[in-house]
Specification:
Blueprint lengths: L27 H7 L3 H13 L2 H4 L6 H15 L6 E7 L5 H8 L3 E8 L2 H14 L3 E5 L12 E7 L8 H11 E13 L1 H21 L12 H17 L6 H11 L2 E8 L2 H15 L7 H20 L12 E7 L7
Parallel strand pairs: 1-2, 1-4, 2-3, 4-5
Antiparallel strand pairs: 5-7, 6-7
Helix pairs in contact: 1-2, 2-6, 2-9, 4-5, 7-10, 8-11, 11-12
Length: about 325
Amino acid sequence: MTAREPHPDTAATTDAGSDPAPRPHASAEEVQAARSDTKLAQVLYHDWEAETYDDKWSISYDERCIDYARGRFDAVAGDQALPYGRALELGCGTGFFLLNLMQSGVAATGSVTDLSPGMVKVALRNAEHLGLDVDGRVADAETIPYEDDTFDLVVGHAVLHHIPDVEQSLREVLRVLKPGGRFVFAGEPTTVGNFYARWLGRLTWEATTRTTRLPFLADWRRPQQELDESSRAAALEAVVDLHTFDPTELENIAIAAGADDVHAKTEEFAAALLGWPVRTFEAAVPAEKLGWGWARFAFNGWKSLSWLDENVLHHVVPRGYFYNVMITGTKPDSASS
């Protein structure tokens, strides 16, 4: 098998001049069109979010997020001989997962792909600032524009639930992996976890935006234009979030795609019950109102509840009730190209 031809609207080389241009401000007409075009919605939504995504999700490229990314990798993949030679991040966003894994010693060189030109632009900029050896392409995850047997490792974070045909994408992942190569995907929503997280987010947004209409809380309210834009982004988010996963069903999809040594693990139950209201509140109020004390509360609260999840609740709560699912597997050694 050889590399598939990328879709002409989404494929690009490492030459940034040939990439489609980011569209950071979608019009109401484009949003309406995107409701019936999943991949257009993916591009518009993620181009929209690209320049503010790291701030929105408290993403950094320091010890805090290096430890988080490496913790997710180790939790599902276990002990591995490191570093992998060349790694690919599928649906890279701003490069959070791969760049922090590279900083922790997981891979020596990297490539990033995303359907959103804006996200690839930011990911490559982040890699350059960090001094990491990374190239990038605008690409569809169902037709990865690399040759067979190219990568030692493929990773992704919060990407599979955006892909229309997850099994086809995993087949492509296995195609571009070298025999024996590994994939690791983390940050995917479970079906039960997504239900309670979405409701917590909606309730927090409504409570915050209504309360900050009160005159004495007016300085805690974002400008109406920003709130309206967030609401339009949320409308697209409902279009781009295509799947939730039962952990066993996700394992079966990976096995059907041809993977060996497949294993899923879940995390964040109590931590998600805190995390979703916190993130939603942060999105609804001016950033300057939330200082270091808030950031310390949010991070330490998440760490404490994550410890509770891992050491106590994992023993008594079914794995499908946790918010995040991670999955790993390998390309069979005997796979033919």
